[in-house]
Design brief:
It contains eleven helices and two strands. With 263 residues, the chain is mainly α. Strands 1-2 form a two-stranded antiparallel ribbon. The protein starts with 15 loop residues before the first helix and ends with a helix. Keywords: Membrane, Transmembrane, Transmembrane helix.
Length: 263
């Protein structure tokens, strides 16, 4: 069960993408996601695909790790593709399936929307795999620092986000241990009907919730023992500084946006 949970799982490697400043990676990822939503033709789609494939190659992350992150949303991609394929009726008719018609417009819409979401998800997965959770929260706190002047509790919010990212894999391990214990006691968690599996998973909720509360209590005690206060004036062990490679990455991404807009 924990193997299916990929959020917060960092993949360590010596790559140009790993070495980038996390602020640059967050800004570039958000910018790329927005750019994917404005892609409207095949040439722009090829450009976006080339950009994300180049980023994947530079990150040196195994394709299997990327695909593992996409598994939870594959159903959504398939449904989106089929919906556009079967219900977009523009263009020339290719195949007739009763009341359903597959047209050239449907094929184009299915390819366009599916690939757009796929590229968007790949870039988001790449950000999570190449950036440690603590670096992500530190970078997000720096980027959102201007909001603190308006009274927004940015530091406290990023602390909650950091704890959540770190606890996802831990709770995944707890869920697997609880599931194995239930199976050893005769519970049928797999191979049954959907309704039966739902009923079988209900007993997992109570011990998992208990484990989460126990982890939270231990964390609170540890933070109190270390006199953690947070908020304004809190310093960071690792100070973020832009390097020449970050300037190169910004220039490359800016060039991508200029070419995309020109197209």
């Amino acid at each position: 069960m924990s193997a299916r949970i990929s959020i917060g799982r960092y993949y360590s490697a010596a790559s140009p993408i790993h070495a980038l400043d996390p602020r640059v990676k967050i800004a570039a990822t958000i910018g790329f996601m927005v750019s994917c939503l404005i892609v409207t033709n095949a040439l722009e789609l090829v450009l976006a695909g080339a950009f994300v494939l180049a980023a994947v190659a530079l990150a040196r992350v195994p394709v299997s790790r990327l695909l593992a992150q996409l598994k939870p949303v594959m159903f959504f991609l398939v449904v989106t593709s089929l919906f556009n394929l079967l219900f977009v009726g523009t263009g020339t008719e290719l195949v007739a399936l009763g009341v359903l018609r597959i047209t050239t417009g449907g094929v184009q819409a299915a390819a366009l929307y599916t690939l757009r979401f796929l590229f968007l998800l790949l870039m988001g997965s790449l950000l999570m795999l190449t950036t440690q959770p603590m670096a992500l929260t530190d970078a997000a706190e720096r980027l959102l620092a201007p909001l603190a002047r308006l009274g927004v509790p940015v530091s406290e919010g990023m602390l909650v986000l950091s704890i959540a990212l770190r606890f996802v894999p831990i709770l995944g391990e707890d869920a697997r241990a609880i599931a194995n214990a239930q199976i050893a006691r005769g519970a049928k968690l797999e191979g049954a009907r959907f309704r039966d599996r739902i009923h079988a998973f209900i007993p997992l909720a109570v011990p998992l919730f208990s484990a989460a509360v126990r982890h939270a209590d231990r964390l609170a005690c540890a933070m109190e023992a270390r006199c953690y206060t947070g908020g304004a004036g809190r310093t960071h062990y690792h100070e973020l500084r832009l390097a020449p490679r970050d300037a190169v990455a910004i220039a490359v991404f800016a060039l991508y946006l200029v070419v995309l807009i020109a197209l």
